[in-house]
Write a structure and sequence with these properties.
Among the domains are: 152 residues, no CATH class; 80 residues, Muramoyl-pentapeptide Carboxypeptidase, domain 1 (Orthogonal Bundle), CATH 1.10.101. It is an alpha+beta fold. The strands form four sheets. An eight-stranded mixed beta barrel has the order 3-4-5-14-12-11-6-15. A four-stranded antiparallel sheet has the order 7-10-8-9. The radius of gyration is 31 Å and the shape is globular. The protein has 24 helices and 17 strands.
């Protein structure tokens, strides 16, 4: 029987055989597998098609051996690598990636890979029964996966040294050597994908962040021949200052967590205590703050008594500043609870932050802005040289499910100075309409009006009724009371959220600024505009400030588009390595941990095993072939209906929402 080497042809033929009993499908199949076909055999078409499909499965499932490629009962290394990098699920990985053309993506950079060798023998980690230098270096990288915030156990960990012993001693059989090749290749593939795109797909959590192009199989082939495999693997990680700082800070935090594991928690005082008051656990508090770097060693001696010293109060303020707490220097419930969080938990926060950074596009352009939702902070970064040039407080989406700021990446295309606020229909017909109906005087003073077919009408009970019915829209004129403030950043995205100013700047004085309907209000709109328009002729700071006070909008396209990243990280690191931890506003860390745990617990097929869908198809074809003439129509129909369900998940971005008192 002829073998069919092209996987797409296999898929088409099997689909024909499963879904059609027409003679044309059977005839086309018979020509390929070598069976004759006669039109007069139509009465056997149904049974014949099912049998042909089984034959096709066998033909497709046995790829020809390549010269010089060792094989075992577990399948060739090339076949396994093709399976885990293409249409089949990755053992222990995230499965096949979605087509790039079907997803919104900013990343236009070429795949992070080197040219793979044409010779399949060269692209192996085990050659002639012996390990290559590249195999040892890749195994060392897998064992050190914790340095990147990943779990070495997911990639073989320290077991590779033991598995290599038989090969080093010349005791391994060809089958054992081939198994090491196959398993090392699969583990390297999972590791490469985790570094490039993360362990889980952000779409599974509702985030519109498709992966960039990446040919994982070719990358692993390149690893097998690279002069420096470790450097090639390192090239997959994000080249972002925020990511690099976390990676550098992680080993020290992990070591500290190991040393302090099992330490008893500090007691919560009955009432807040300030400097000069007695706290029985003050010596232990001083020891912990010194270990965390908040209490300098020369000050530790002065803080060793059971009386809270001024030095200890200063150290507490530093700790509180790093944990988004009011900086009062007091021993109170919230501060002690933060001090008692196990350091292993802090390690996990860093690892989750690294995971989310790996979701982000790699090519961000010459400048970008990052809004970290838990930190309620914006940072503006330039690529050459990489440096943070601007930072400010922001107001982010509230914790209610329908008001959260999403995680996404978007291209910043323009700035709208002195914008109108087109009140979203849901807000206009709901809370804002009710507010204005009670206080019609506010509508005129704040610049609201109703627009119907281009005509402007005053806000009144009758016109608000039109808004609630959806036949008119509510708008707000530019001005100092406008909810979007003096500007709006135009950044098209699936969630329809954007950055803008606000008419209520006093809200930035609050410690908790999760107040909006999903959009991001910025504390310094003029500084943000100056960053985005840097180098653009005709837009110095004076021109920007004049544009912010116009009576009518002014749309200014960016000569050099920037990138906006809406990020969710409960751990960040400063340039000096100082770690900061932020509240998990939306409970997103817990959800991500659940997704990672579910991904890791998915069964991993043994090397060389057929994908589950192929096994299911084969079983169903055997069942259908044996019952084709047995009157089992309803059961077969139900099975067909089940199989016809779409296999891919349906993703829905977080809903866009806007604030009635300060914009979205």
């Amino acid at each position: 029987m002829r073998r069919i080497d092209h996987p797409r042809a296999c898929a088409e033929l099997i689909t024909d055989a499963m879904s059609s009993g027409e003679a044309s499908a059977a005839e086309r199949s018979s020509h390929i597998v070598g069976f004759p076909w006669r039109p007069g055999w139509a009465i056997l078409a149904t049974l014949r098609v099912q049998v042909l499909a089984i034959v096709l499965l066998a033909a497709c499932g046995q790829p020809p051996e390549r010269p010089g490629t060792a094989r075992s009962a577990h399948g060739s290394a090339e076949a396994i690598a093709s399976e885990v990098s293409g249409d089949a699920a990755v053992p222990g990985g995230a499965g096949a990636e979605a087509p790039e053309e079907a997803l919104f993506s900013l990343d236009t950079s070429p795949p992070a890979t080197a040219a793979a060798p044409a010779d399949p023998v060269a692209a192996r980690f085990v050659r002639d029964g012996a390990l290559t230098r590249q195999a040892r270096l890749v195994a060392a990288a897998l064992a050190g996966a914790a340095d990147a915030g990943l779990d070495p156990a997911d990639y073989g960990g320290g077991a590779w040294a033991h598995r290599f012993q038989a090969l080093d001693g010349g005791r391994a059989t060809p089958e054992e050597a081939d198994r090491v090749e196959t398993d090392l290749r699969a583990a390297a593939l999972r590791f490469a994908r985790a570094l490039r795109h993360g362990r889980v797909r952000p779409q599974a959590l509702g985030y519109p962040l498709p992966p960039g192009p990446f040919d994982a199989k070719r990358f692993v082939d390149a690893l097998a021949t690279a002069a420096d495999p470790a450097a090639l693997l390192d090239s997959l990680a994000p080249r972002l200052p925020a990511y690099d700082r976390l990676v550098r800070a992680l080993p020290q935090l992990r070591a500290l967590a190991e040393r302090r594991r099992g330490e008893p928690p500090l007691p919560v005082p009955a009432r807040p205590l300030r400097a000069g008051q007695r706290y029985a656990a003050a010596p232990r508090l001083a020891e912990l703050l010194a270990a965390l770097g908040d209490l300098e060693e020369p000050q530790r001696a002065a803080a060793s008594s059971k009386i809270l010293s001024p030095e200890l109060a200063d150290a507490l303020r530093r700790f509180q500043a790093r944990h988004a707490l009011p900086q009062d220097g007091m021993v109170n419930r919230r501060t002690v609870e933060a001090l008692n969080v196990p350091l292993d938990r802090r390690v996990a926060q860093v690892e989750l932050a690294l995971e989310r950074w790996r979701w982000m596009p790699r090519d961000l352009g010459p400048r970008w802005i990052v809004v970290n939702v838990p930190a309620q902070r914006l940072e503006a970064v330039e690529r050459e040289p990489p440096r943070e040039t601007l930072a400010m407080h922001v107001i982010v989406g509230a914790t209610a499910e329908d008001r959260r700021t999403p995680v996404l990446a978007a291209r910043v295309e323009a700035i709208m100075f002195s914008p109108y606020w087109d009140v979203p229909e849901k807000v206009a017909a709901g809370e804002l309409a009710r507010l204005l109906a009670r206080r019609l005087d506010l509508a005129e003073g704040d610049g609201f009006f109703v627009e119907v077919d281009g005509a402007r009408l005053p806000v009144g009970r009758r016109t608000l009724a039109l808004v609630r019915r959806g036949v008119a829209r509510l708008r707000q004129r530019p001005g100092p009371r406008n909810s979007l403030g003096p500007l709006k950043v135009v950044m098209p995205n699936p969630s329809d959220v954007y950055l803008h100013g606000t008419a209520r700047p006093r809200l930035f004085n609050r410690n908790d600024r999760a107040l909006s309907h999903g959009c991001i209000r910025v504390a310094e709109p003029a500084a943000l505009a100056a960053f985005l328009l840097a180098g653009q002729p005709g837009f110095d700071r004076a021109r920007i400030e004049a544009a912010m006070t116009r009576a009518e909008p002014l749309l200014v396209s960016l000569a050099t588009p920037a990138t906006a990243l809406l990020m969710y990280a409960t751990a960040t690191a400063d340039e000096d390595g100082t770690l900061r931890f932020w509240p998990d506003l939306y409970g997103a860390d817990a959800r991500l941990e659940q997704e990672i745990s579910a991904e890791r617990s998915r069964p991993r097929p043994p090397p060389g095993a057929q994908p589950a869908r192929v096994r299911d198809i084969g079983r169903r074809l055997v069942r259908d072939a044996t019952t084709a003439h047995g009157g089992a129509g309803p059961a077969r129909g139900a099975a067909a209906a089940t199989d016809a369900k779409p296999g891919g998940a349906t993703f829905q971005a977080d809903p866009a929402a806007f604030d009635t008192a300060g914009g979205g």
